[in-house]
Amino acid sequence: MKWVWFCAVLSFLCGSIPVFAQFPDPTGSNPTENARASLSSDRVSIMGRVISEDGTAPPEQGEVVLKCGTTEQARADMDSRGDFSLSVNVARENSTDAKFHGPDPTTSNVIRDWGDCELQAQVRGYTSEAVHLVGNTDHLVQVGSIIVHPMAAAAAPQKFTVSVGSLEAPEKAKKAFEKGEEQANKGKWASACDSFKRAIQEYPRYALAWLELGRVQAQQNSFVAAQQSFHEAVSKDSHLTEAYVELARVAVAQKDWKELADATEHLVEGSPDSNPQYWFLNGAANLNLGNPGQAENSAVRGLRLDPKHSIPQLEYLYGLTLAIRGDYKNAAQHLATYLQLSPHSADAPTAQAKLAEIQKRTKPPQPSHEVDFSLH
Q1: How far apart, in whole angstroms, are the C-alpha atoms of residue 226 and residue 115?
Q2: pLDDT, tens only, 141-150
Q3: Residue 243 neighbours by CB distance under 10 Å
Q4: What is the pLDDT of residue 154?
Q5: Which of 50, 124, 140, 159 is deepest in the core (most CB within 10 A)?
């Protein structure tokens, strides 16, 4: 089961920086017969850009598809620059008696939980990373960039970084693992969970089985159990990068900043020049942990790897770290850059308020025009 991750949104609040990334939403629930009494639906527009690894638009135009589970919710063409826009119906909770503003929110064409939804590009000759959407949504959602990779380059790596220990798994364990993969691909999470557990029972050193067990546990919002499974995976194979990525995903869902810092530290140590997303999350985690110096270093490394601003939140993060150490002039510039890049993001009002606060500190004190008429 492949679950590619791309960080979409970061919201900064005073004292804490909750990260809303492409992880399952723990608050999601299934519709009930009383849903009509508490829900309505709104139309939400989703905008973004498809880019290749070097930050440019792919040479061929394609489509962007939004899937929730196995159901396609919407698709849209991308233009020559890679830009796209699509619209979907999203269920809302009402604080008063329901008055519907769209389709019946209990029907299948209305999205109730972003946790199982992902955006992917379909471009001939390319494979696409996926953007997962979680958290509350406004009427306009900016998801940033969807990165696509040439198939020739993507075909070389295997699906997993396979350890010797996993290759030595006995046939019975491998069959249980394959069964779990088949069930997971069909969305049969409970059955898949049982199959991966059988594989582990047959061969406790089966790092890939621990990894996939954690993934299906996360799909069922069992984040504590998933975290334990991912830790087991890296204990069996310390080079299993996917397990550290999943640990970071669960840490975001739980707002466990220490876990997020530790997981992303492994990722950036293993491949410091590969992915600005990992530096971004490492910086956000350290800022929440009260380590602004480390957060600033991570933001600088991330920005160096992201000249095309595919992750505009790095500008926001860097601006905050500069403000903390008193460099208000440069802090204001980076916050202003972030707002130019993401003017309609969910955290734009908060960023605007912080920018105004920082700009006040950059103004020199006004000289007093009062005249002292006292006699000395």
Answers
A1: 15
A2: 777 788 887 7
A3: 29
A4: 39
A5: 50
The tens digit of pLDDT for each residue in 268-283 reads 987 788 788 899 999 9
**Closest by alpha carbon to 103, among 156, 154, 63, 44?**
44
Rounded to whole angstroms, the Cα distance separating 6 from 230 reads 19
Among the CATH numbers 2.60.40.10, 3.40.50.2300, 3.30.300.30, 3.40.630.10, which is that of 9-31+40-92+103-154? 2.60.40.10
Which tokens in the block code for residue 12?
Answer: 């900064």
Look up the pTM and report it: 0.60
The two tokens of residue 351 are 């960023």
- In sequence order, the β-bridge partners of residue 39 are 93
**Phi, psi angles (nearest 5°) of residue 345:** -70, 160
- Pull the structure tokens for residue 164: 């010797």
CATH number, domain 164-360: 1.25.40.10
Distance CA(280)–CA(7), nearest Å, equals: 9
Structure letter (DSSP) for residue 367: P
Alpha carbon 247 to its chain centroid, in Å, reads 13
CA angle 74, 78, 80 (to 5 degrees): 175
- Long-range contact pairs involving 215-220 (C-beta distance under 8 Å, separation at least 24): 215/1, 215/3, 215/184, 215/246, 216/1, 216/180, 216/184, 216/189, 216/192, 217/193, 218/23, 218/24, 218/246, 218/249, 218/250, 218/253, 219/24, 219/116, 219/184, 219/189, 220/189, 220/190, 220/193
- Determine contact, residues 184/212, Cβ cutoff 8 Å: yes
CB atoms within 10 A of CB 69: 13
Give residue for tokens 């999470």. 189
Nearest-angstrom CA–CA distance, 283 and 280: 5
Radius of gyration from C-alpha coordinates of the chain:
23
Element (H, E) at 93: strand 83-93
Using the 8-state DSSP alphabet, how is residue 83 labeled?
E
Q: What's the CA gap between 87 and 83, in Å, rounded?
A: 14
Question: pLDDT digit string (tens) for 197-222?
Answer: 999 999 999 999 999 999 999 888 89
pLDDT at 16: 41
Enumerate the domain spans of the chain.
Answer: 9-31+40-92+103-154, 164-360
